[in-house]
Design goal:
- The protein is mostly helical.
- It is built from 3 helices and no strands.
- Helix 1 runs antiparallel to helix 2.
- The mean pLDDT is 88.
């Protein structure tokens, strides 16, 4: 997990959620929920990104949409 520019928007949104929770619970609990939300979202996005990178591999064929393996499309190059 590394910090990206769009994490500023995530942090701002979580701060607003924490401010909204303060009237209903102690500030310590609101901060704890905010931190759990932040790290939970970061872990989810990281796993999803790695899954997509693993699925795509070297790229996607522009003709049929299959994953490219060894710089060749298994679908298009098999037909030729």
């Amino acid at each position: 997990m590394y910090f990206e520019k769009r994490d500023v928007v995530l942090i701002a949104g979580i701060i607003l959620v924490m401010i909204g929770l303060i009237p209903f619970m102690a500030p310590v609990y609101a901060v704890t929920i905010g931190l759990l939300l932040y790290f939970g979202i970061k872990v989810y996005v990281g796993r999803k990104r790695s899954m997509i990178e693993k699925e795509v591999g070297e790229g996607v064929c522009m003709e049929c949409g299959f994953t490219i393996v060894d710089k060749k499309c298994p679908n298009c190059d098999a037909e030729k």
